[in-house]
């Protein structure tokens, strides 16, 4: 059913209201028979979209309210989330940043409502990847992520005024002899969560792994002078790293 303006050819053109055969409704602008311009599309399941359309597809700026209570507000291209947008999830988590082809992609910030932690950094096809900072209540981690897990060198920065440097090492999962015999040669090895291996504790430094230069040798020598005293601090700090922190800080959050 359609109630609204039409052009000389009889096509829907201008403002109109329509009820689709599946029970959905649309109230907004048309152009030559297509939904184009501002409009509100209400789905039979309770979801609805308010924003811009182009030839029947969400395109431009708009807000989509999902049936589970989540919401996306931002850019759309060809009916998919694209550009900058903010997604509020049903559990209260939020993501604000870049989107590409319906996925979190580029630079963005994900905030976990339950813990208050947040991930600030790169994304690729919806997964945490690239240089990033994972910020917790009393400490944070700076380093690189790959396929949702921290990888390689990085550092933990504690509010007590020190840093723990080290690296995440990817280990292969142990297998029994029978499993090893049955495993085909071209089958990829099963991987387990990367483990944090601490190397040293230093005072706070004012550089990050985001392309800036590390401290000069003279600045580094100032830290070396405190190495002896830091050994005792290191033992206590390593002991204070909980079992959760020894695993990838984001493990289990997705």
UniProtKB/TrEMBL annotation:
> Can you supply one Gene Ontology CC term for this chain's record?
motile cilium
Chain segments annotated as coiled-coil in the UniProt record = none
Check the record and name the Gene3D superfamilies matching this protein: Histone H3 K4-specific methyltransferase SET7/9 N-terminal domain
Question: Where does the protein principally reside?
Answer: cytoplasm
Q: Which InterPro entries does the UniProt entry name for this protein?
A: MORN
Q: Where in the cell is it found?
A: Cytoplasm, Cytoskeleton, Flagellum axoneme
Q: Which UniProt keywords apply?
A: Cell projection, Cilium, Cytoplasm, Cytoskeleton, Flagellum, Meiosis, Repeat
Q: Which domain of life is it from?
A: Eukaryota
Q: Where in the sequence does UniProt note compositional bias of the Basic and acidic residues kind? A: 1-13
A Pfam family matched in the record: MORN
Output one GO BP term: spermatid development
| Residue ranges of the region described as Disordered | 1-29, 173-194, 206-254
Q: Where is the composition biased (Low complexity)?
A: 218-231
Extent of Acidic residues compositional bias: 176-188
> Which function does this protein serve?
Functions as part of axonemal radial spoke complexes that play an important part in the motility of sperm and cilia.
UniProt-recorded name of the protein: Radial spoke head 1 homolog
Print the organism lineage: Eukaryota, Metazoa, Chordata, Craniata, Vertebrata
């Amino acid at each position: 059913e359609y109630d609204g303006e039409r052009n000389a050819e009889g096509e829907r053109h201008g403002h109109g209201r329509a009820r689709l055969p599946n029970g959905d409704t649309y109230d907004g602008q048309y152009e030559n028979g297509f939904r184009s311009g501002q409009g509100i599309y209400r789905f039979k399941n309770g979801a609805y979209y308010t924003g811009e359309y182009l030839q029947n597809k969400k395109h431009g700026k708009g807000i989509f309210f999902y049936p589970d209570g989540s919401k996306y507000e931002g850019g759309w291209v060809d009916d998919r989330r694209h550009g900058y947008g903010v997604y509020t999830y049903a559990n209260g988590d939020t993501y604000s940043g870049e989107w590409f082809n319906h996925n979190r992609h580029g630079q963005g910030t994900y905030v976990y409502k339950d813990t208050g932690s947040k991930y600030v950094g790169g994304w690729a096809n919806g997964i945490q990847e690239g240089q990033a900072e994972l910020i917790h209540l009393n400490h944070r981690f700076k380093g690189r992520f790959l396929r949702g897990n921290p990888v390689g060198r990085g550092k933990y920065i504690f509010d007590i005024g020190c840093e723990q440097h080290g690296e995440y090492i990817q280990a292969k999962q142990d297998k029994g002899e029978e499993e090893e015999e049955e495993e085909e040669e071209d089958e990829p090895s099963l991987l387990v969560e990367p483990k944090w291996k601490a190397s040293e504790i230093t005072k706070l430094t004012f550089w990050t792994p985001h392309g800036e230069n590390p401290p000069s040798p003279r600045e580094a020598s100032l830290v070396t002078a405190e190495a002896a005293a830091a050994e005792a601090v290191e033992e206590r700090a390593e002991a204070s790293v909980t079992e959760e922190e020894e695993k990838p800080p984001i493990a289990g959050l997705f």
